[in-house]
Structures are given as structure tokens and as C-alpha cells.
Write a sequence for this structure.
């Protein structure tokens, strides 16, 4: 099938690291994306990784890609209250460049 | 800079009534335009996309239609709403010809409740 799977919720303490996981299905996907949606708002592109990379780091964000297992993760270091949001994983299909979206992981920050 | 406006932000409509959601992009030309629906606990579902004026591709058969009367205007419509049309609708645009085809810029969304 074309499912992109994510856990629906993740709860972490402020200051800890958050790791949001995603599995995808198309081994020929070219790019994989992480989008962030704050409450009541549209989505914003957070980061992306090209399929020939294993890791990408951007300030507090680290993306890890395991192509063999079709597993993608987003690590947020030193999680802050402003990181509270829903995080969507999406894969770009090589055949038609369409995005297949996960259901989103709601990140809950505990004080 | 580029901006995207989507309205209305919230809408409560009776079953059987018509619908019109409008989306306008500013600060860019020839964008690709998209309408998505977001249901709770589910990923975004692509409803329509457009690569140019009058060019609409429908991804799923449904009670909705889309039109692109101008380069930067995208309209989502229905003649008769169903209860199942309730949801959060997102308009988005992307740069045509971009290598990063999955880089979408989203509007703030329109929450539709059909009663």
C-alpha cells in the first residue's frame, strides 16, 4: 500500500530530546519531508532529506534516514514549549512527485 | 515576499447548501496550486491540484470541484454539501519547476462544519 506510518502522540519533558519516527513504503522516494503544524494553522516545511543522505542536521533538528528499513526520524534537541505542534512526515513518490502523508504526530511538552 | 490567503477561516453550512472556499497567492507567478483535506488522526488527502489556469486534476472522486479562473486564484466548490464534507481544508502552492517539488506553502486553513 501507500501508507506512511507515524505514532499519533509523543509526550516529552521540556529540555529533553524528542524523537518522532516515521516509516514509509516507496523505496524509490526521492525526498522525504517533515512539516510542522501549529494549532489551528496551516503546515510549514520544517526540514527535508534527499534519499541519498543518511543524516541531516539543522540547528536543533536532526533527521535520520534508514533506507534499508524505510525509516525516517526527526530529533528535536532541547525541546521547548514552542515546539508543541503536530509533525507530519511525507514521502515524495518518484513516479509522479506526489506527496504521501503520514497522519501526524502530536508533540506534547510537559513542564 | 510570497503570501497565501485562504477564506473563510471557519464556515458552518447546512447539508445540501453550496460551498465556495477561495485561495489567493501573492508575490509569485505560475504557481502549482493544491487543495487538501485534513481529517483528525489521518494524513492530508490531496483533493485537487492545478499546474495552470483552467487545468485541474482531481485525485479522488467526491462531491467537490475546483476551479482556477486566474493564475493565482484557486476555488473549491460544492453544489450540495454532505455531512461527510466536514473537515479542515488547506490550500497550498509550490514553485513550478522547482527541484524540491514537495516544498509546499500552506494557507491557514478553512474549517468547514456541515450540520
Amino acid at each position: 500500500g501507500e501508507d506512511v506510518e507515524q505514532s499519533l502522540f509523543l509526550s516529552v519533558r521540556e529540555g529533553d530530546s524528542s524523537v518522532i519516527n516515521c516509516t514509509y513504503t516507496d523505496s524509490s522516494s526521492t525526498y522525504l519531508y517533515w512539516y510542522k503544524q501549529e494549532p489551528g494553522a496551516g503546515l510549514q516545511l520544517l526540514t527535508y532529506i534527499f534519499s541519498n543522505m543518511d543524516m541531516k542536521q539543522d540547528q536543533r533538528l536532526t533527521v535520520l534516514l534508514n533506507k534499508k528499513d524505510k525509516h525516517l526520524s526527526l530529533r528535536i534537541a532541547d525541546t521547548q514549549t514552542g515546539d508543541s505542534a503536530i509533525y507530519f512526515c511525507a514521502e515524495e513518490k518518484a513516479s509522479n512527485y506526489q506527496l504521501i502523508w503520514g497522519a501526524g504526530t502530536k508533540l506534547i511538552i510537559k513542564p | 515576499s510570497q503570501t497565501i490567503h485562504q477564506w473563510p477561516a471557519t464556515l458552518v453550512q447546512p447539508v445540501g447548501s453550496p460551498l465556495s472556499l477561495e485561495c489567493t497567492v501573492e508575490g509569485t507567478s505560475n504557481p502549482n496550486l493544491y487543495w487538501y483535506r485534513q481529517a483528525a488522526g489521518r494524513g492530508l488527502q490531496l483533493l485537487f491540484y492545478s499546474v495552470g489556469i483552467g487545468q485541474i486534476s482531481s485525485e479522488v472522486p467526491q462531491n467537490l470541484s475546483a476551479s482556477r479562473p486566474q493564475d493565482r486564484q484557486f476555488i473549491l466548490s460544492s453544489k450540495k454539501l454532505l455531512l461527510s464534507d466536514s473537515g479542515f481544508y488547506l490550500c497550498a502552492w509550490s514553485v513550478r519547476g522547482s527541484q524540491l517539488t514537495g516544498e509546499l506553502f500552506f494557507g491557514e486553513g478553512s474549517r468547514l462544519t456541515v450540520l
The two ends of chain A are 39 Å apart (CA to CA). Chain A is about 0% helix and 55% strand. The longest strand of chain A covers residues 43-50.
